[in-house]
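A further point concerns the way the authors explain their paired sequence and structure data. The central task, working out the structure tokens from the amino acid sequence alone, is never made concrete. I therefore recommend that a typical entry be quoted early in the introduction. An entry of this sort, consisting of the sequence and the corresponding backbone structure tokens, reads as follows:
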Amino acid sequence: MNLKRSFSTNILLTVCFVLVSNLSFSNLTLWDWYTYTNTDLGYSLELPNEPNYQDDYDSFIIYSYNDTNSKRVYSFFALDLRDRNQDSKPSEIVDNFTNNIVNNLNGELLDKKEIKYSDGLQYKILVKINEEKLMSAQFTLQNNILYYLSVEDLKDSVDNNNTKRFFNSLKVTSAKPMEVKEWLDFVSEKGAFSITIPEEPTDLSREYPNPLEEDGEPYYLYLYSAPDYKNDDNYLFRYNDQPLGYFMEDPAGGFESMQETLTARAELLSPPKTIFLDGNEGREYELLLDGKFHTICRIYLRGNRAYLLLKQKLNEKEKATTDDTFFNSFKFEPYKTPELTTLQPRGTNFEVLFFDDLKRVIDTVGYESTYLKNSNDYFALNEMSGGTYQFGYSDLKDYFKIASKDEFFETNIDALKSWNDSIIKQKNIKVGNEDGVEFHIQNEGTKVITKHQLWLQNKRLFLMTGYLSDEERDSKLTDSIFNSFKVISKEPEFDVFSSKTDAIFNDLRSKDSIVYHNALGAFDYYEFETTDLPKLYEALNYSYDSQEKTNLIKDKIAEQFSLVSDSKTLDVLKNLYTNESTNDDLKATILTIIPDLENDDALSVYKDLFLNNPPVNTENYTWGVVSPFTDSLNYAIENYKDFSTLIKHEKYRSDVLDVSLNILQDSTGHSSLVSDNMEKLFQYMESDLQKYLEEKDKDEYDYSMNSLIYSYLNFLNKSSYKNEFTDTFTSTLAKEKDNQWFSLQATTARIVNNYPLDNAFIETQMDSLFSRYEIMEAYHKTNQFNKVPKKYIKPEEFAKLALYNYVGEDEGYPDTMTVVGKIKNEGDEYYAISFGYEYEEAEGEEYLAIVGPIKEISQKTPYERYKCYTEWDSVEKDWKTQTKNLIPSLIEYGY
């Protein structure tokens, strides 16, 4: 046995030595001393009087004697090592104890010598405690039992005759034979498992802070240890549930997280093995703990509950195996049934069976534009299984209306689905006397299944959800909870199918701001029908409390005509547009709606209204207003002459430039429409640049100006148009330090239009990973690729450039990139590149990406960025296998 690493009791000695160092003895004479005898461990010794102090530990008891008038302290104990592995040499055991004593006392070893002892091994040591006190100690190792005696006293008297008498009084006889320990069966009803272990376990359970939410419910780890010192094995086993309100959403991610926790202290010696127990997936890890101790760890997931089994060798030279009683005996036990209680939320008329220990979350914020008033959710944890249950309900607003329950349920089911989710089971049910639906959602990626029930009862929407293991999902317990809803008193009836249109328009005139805002919010969810159109038309003629309210309500009404309309709608909107009281915001809304009306005259009316009286003072985005010109190139060509006159309005200048560029790049022979009018298109370029430069640093800067500047630059990058001011325009913006993107686009525009560039400037731009790719592309497009320095064309540099842009488009540009190496697959070569960030949260983390296939880059080959892909995993020791495993995803998802 190697006590240096396995003997936890040595640490406990610190307590003893510190405590007894503060005790004292009176001066002693050689009268008859007290004889202490221990027949269990086979020894006796003499000391001045009966021990008056003791410290109890798991493996031994330290006895001490002192006198209040003396500085002297006598201490002794015996430690049975017969049940420990005997690999360590006796001298190593004594050395280990000596080092621990000196370190724990923060002392200095003054002397250490072996004493001739025919029946075993005996050492004496002298330790300096401080400037005044010393400690003299004697170790005797006989028959695999360690006998320890020590005296603390002033340095001038520590080795007097009393000390010698104390040390020489030790007599070792025969100890009682050790009891053969049988392994114990440990059963956890709460944890729902059983396992056989070498001895009674030590409970090390503890709370662990929630890593996802600082103030959230903590993790509680039920952790136990049970060492087998005879065979140099240490066993740990634990289970933990998710904090209240959480569930195991991604088992694969859970395994990865646990692996990261393990490898924080241990080296992973081989790839994890996928294992199963009773259909529950797990992982087996082979580890080297603290760089010394071979360890096997198994982790299983059972629903939301994680189990961990760990066997650690205490001998550095041995390896742990899985073929032993500990691993082979572990078994999942059936869940015990917990007690349920009745939950009746205050102020409601219903009750359900639920758990007593629950978390309630009420939310009333952000529901202004929905048919819900609030959400009331109750989360509970089944402590016998780790299963998480959620019961929730929402009060419905007065304007709630549906066409059919089936359609309503399907809409809400879709809203509950996340990416890659699918419905694997669904049926109509009765909840009390109300119609409802029960369904199971499974994520195709994680394979996690959740169980749900959804129903309407009078003026409330209800949802019951279970995040459960396979065995609990269809259990009697779950059925009793899901089928427990009961209405216990009557409330006023609410008709979910009747029209609420009159109520909405009545409340829009309310002086009560809450009532008004609720009615206004109804336009975001209420579904008006064709029978409501006369009321909508009529409401456009109302005047409300203020002009601001009137404009806002009319805008809301106008938006509804994109969803419901008839043959009169076009005329209604046309008249509203031309009404002198209609502001430009409302006009912009009308122009976005008219083109989509099912009316043959819609586009004609749209063009007439827009081109003759465009809304130039609207704060709305213009993309919807000009969509007929951007969505249809033919329409833009047919009406370009009139549309291009909008260049005089700054509001639409960017749109005109973009549509003009589309026509110019078209291959149908209409480019002359634009090329013959280039001077008109760019007539405001100088003033627009001046306005941008003057206003860009102001607090009230209108950022729509950025779109206009970009449209100019985009046009000059994709077409060749040179005049005196395009030169000045691009030259000025190329030097722009506050906007890297504008500087880059201006630089590439100068390359495309063959304007000169300062050598030092272009070298700086090329040296920057941010701008290098686009500049290389511009040189390639203009047959000037020879101007690109050869060092940037090398595959390795181009691969890093590709990765820089790929990652930058996703999570932010990396601060570090290192080529780990190259791999080959089916004749193609790929780079493995690590990348990282220097901000505090990610510092030191290096992620792996694959880049390729690697191809030659030249003027004669297409200029294409190498494809890149990363799963944001840290670089592993076997990076080649890790990289090769990314190739299928690179092919499917990389770009």
